[in-house]
TrEMBL record, chain A:
Keywords: Cell membrane, Membrane, Transmembrane, Transmembrane helix, Transport. Probably part of an ABC transporter complex. Probably responsible for the translocation of the substrate across the membrane. Its main location: membrane. One of its GO terms (biological process) is alkanesulfonate transmembrane transport. It comes from Methylobacterium planeticum. Residues 1-24 are annotated as: Disordered. Pfam families: BPD_transp_1. It is a multi-pass membrane protein. It is found in: Cell membrane. This is ABC transporter permease.
Length: 290, 279
């Protein structure tokens, strides 16, 4: 087709009212850096938390139902962290844990999104899959340990499985919710434009569910780390969870807190990474409304 | 190809049509006894009170709703399911938010398997047709409501539909933009003539646009009156003060005046019953 054939009757109309009202576009960076004041407030809050911890631990505060008598002080924890940082074991611990969490998370991503889309779009799939999944959902990771050991030939696979159980349900349920929420009008207009079932899924349902999937994935990433200590109770030698658990059995209290903080930091970092990847995958949610 | 006439004729025939919505005991007849023939390339406006079933009838023409009785055919072929040759423009918010404007317009050709370069070039042509050549790379949310509806029109026309179905397409726009869109639509229609079925409850809009206005009764919707409009084209804004226009407007107002004891009904959609919550 030649452009000339269609040369714009609307062109003359385009400029005045249309563009004027269209100029609320604003690619304004929605999430630019926080103002310095708020950053300072947040840093201050962390500092206050540390101070409270230090005071409680150094004065061996005893409140009756809860006591800080055996809680290591921040300085002791920092020393323990420093010596762990010096040791070659840190890399092995972090590497082993990352591999397990990522393995479980990725498996949960595939299973959760696949099952979630099926359940969200097909009543039959929902009727078949939801009842057994609802029974499995409340089972805590710890309760899976014996069965995981029995079901998987390698302890590595059973650890990955346990982080998988943690990550699966948030991803699955959010995907179901997102797929169900795909607007019937969008689906109908896509059908009128010639889209078949597969195209509807690819072009409408999946992108519509993507924000929910990202939320589910970020939560799932957190719960995968949450299950790490449980998973690594099975482990023979490496992993942050194993390190934490081992420190407990060896009564190395400083190291317990180091392990806890490491898990917290790694968990937070990977959830942030998931959200950042999600934003990259959804350019239409940046700027504008949407 | 210059202003290529749309492929086939676009004749609509409806005989003894009735549409039911709802299930079980809640089911009710929305429209009944619709007999209607629309010749090729006629611009028909369906005018009626809210909830009278005019959008429902449009949904049946689009293939999103089935008939309970009767027959509905396009160029002799019974309507079965949605098809790009029966393009439909909804009131608002049916562009894919995750696709740039140009990709939204190229959606139909993509579904037909047209290659990327060609379909994007074609989409740009149609964006130029609706005066949005400069907005191709934007996302729909970055456009105003009026601009989004223009994209919507381009996205449907790129498929060269035999009939163009419009469900109160300018109903959500402010008055100023609505007038501009009406003129734009007539302008496009003279370049790419197709049969148009345009649903509205705005009498001025119906009289300004159509070759013919069909006035529908309240539920169950039937066609009360079939009014041909002989106003010459191209039509300008001064038409609305023409004495004949005013006389016809008075007649439509009379036909649409609610009977005693009738309360307004909720708006129906071309997809059936209104969705809870969703606007």
């Amino acid at each position: 087709m030649s452009t000339a054939a269609l040369d714009a009757p609307g062109a003359a109309l385009a400029a005045p009212p249309g563009s004027a009202e269209g100029r609320r576009l604003g690619r304004a960076a929605g999430r630019s850096a926080l103002p310095l004041r708020r950053l300072a407030t947040r840093a201050g809050a962390l500092g206050l938390g540390l101070l409270a911890w230090h005071l409680a631990a150094s004065h061996r505060l005893d409140l009756g139902p809860v006591t800080f008598r055996n809680v290591p002080a921040p300085a002791e924890v920092a020393r323990a962290a420093w010596s762990l940082a010096q040791s070659p074991k840190l890399g092995a611990h972090v590497g082993a844990s990352l591999a397990r969490v990522l393995g479980g998370f990725l498996a949960a991503l595939v299973a959760g999104i696949g099952l979630g889309l099926a359940i969200g779009r097909s009543r039959l799939a929902g009727d078949l899959l939801l009842p057994p999944l609802e029974v499995l959902r409340p089972i805590p990771a710890v309760a899976w340990i014996p069965l995981a050991i029995l079901m998987f030939p390698s302890s590595e696979a059973s650890m990955v499985f346990i982080t998988f159980t943690g990550a699966l349900f948030p991803i699955l349920l959010n995907t179901v919710h997102g797929a169900e929420a795909a607007s019937p009008r969008l689906v109908a207009s896509a059908r009128s434009l010639g889209a078949g079932r597969a195209a509807i899924l690819r072009e409408v349902v999946v992108p519509a569910a993507l924000p929910s999937m990202v939320t589910g994935a970020a939560i799932g990433m957190g719960t995968a780390w949450f299950c790490l200590v449980t998973a690594e109770m099975i482990s023979g030698q490496y992993g942050i969870g194993y390190f934490t658990w081992e420190s407990y059995t060896l009564q190395n209290y400083d190291d317990i807190v180091v392990g806890m903080l490491l898990i917290g930091l790694l968990g937070m970092g990977s959830s942030v990474a998931v959200r950042a990847l999600g934003r990259l995958a959804m350019p239409w949610t940046r700027g504008g409304r949407a | 190809m210059s202003a290529a006439p749309t492929s086939a004729a676009g004749r609509i025939e409806i005989a003894g049509a009735a549409i039911r919505l709802g299930t079980g005991t809640a089911a009710f007849e929305v429209v009944r006894d619709i007999d209607l023939a629309i010749p090729s390339r006629q611009f028909v406006c369906l005018l009626g009170p809210s909830g009278c079933g005019k959008s429902t009838l449009l949904g049946a023409l689009a293939g999103h709703l089935g008939l309970a009785r009767g027959r509905l055919a396009l160029d002799g072929q019974p309507v079965a399911g949605p098809h790009p040759e029966r393009g439909i423009v909804f009131q608002q918010h049916t562009l894919l938010p995750w696709r740039r404007v140009v990709d939204n317009v190229a959606f139909g050709p993509k579904m037909r398997g047209v290659g990327r370069t060609e379909r994007l070039a074609r989409a740009r042509d149609f964006l130029a047709l609706v005066g949005l050549a400069d907005f191709a790379e934007r996302y729909p949310a970055e456009l105003s409501g009026g601009m989004q509806q223009r994209v919507e029109i381009a996205r449907v026309l790129i498929n060269r539909p035999r009939i163009l179905l419009m469900d109160e397409p300018f109903g959500a726009l402010d008055a100023q933009t609505r007038l501009m869109m009406q003129e734009l639509l007539l302008d496009i229609w003279t370049r790419l003539p197709t049969t148009v079925v345009f649903v509205t409850h705005d009498i001025d809009e119906a009289l300004f646009l159509g070759d013919r206005v069909l006035v529908m009764s309240a539920r169950p919707g039937r066609i009360l009156e079939d009014i041909p409009l002989a106003f010459p084209r191209p039509r300008g804004r001064d038409l609305v003060t023409d004495p004949d226009f005013v006389a016809l407007k008075r007649r439509c107002l009379d036909l649409l005046r609610p009977r005693d004891g009738q309360s307004p009904l909720p708006r129906l959609t071309p997809l059936g019953l209104p969705l809870q919550g969703a606007a």
